[in-house]
Amino acid sequence: KTLYGAQCVTCHGESGKGDGKMAAAMNPPKPSDLTDASWKHGSSDGEIFTLIRDGAKGTGMRGYGARMKPDDMWNVVNYLRTLAQPTAKK
Q: Using alpha carbons only, what angle is made at residue 42 by residues 7 and 32, rounded to the nearest 5 degrees?
């Protein structure tokens, strides 16, 4: 949570909805809603890690591989899992 707050919250917002204070100033695409069940760039743990490490070309999502240790990026992946909306039980 601490790493998310330091690195991600300005774009993705406190709750991960993509509504951080910098989001309004960003050109499309806007920051992703991290509470969605599926994500454009993949939603497996490995795909999320790769996105954090390398960023996403053509978006405001920059890579953090040079600024964060691999363990820290995995900690962010694990924290992002706590932001997901619960799915309805059938």
A: 45
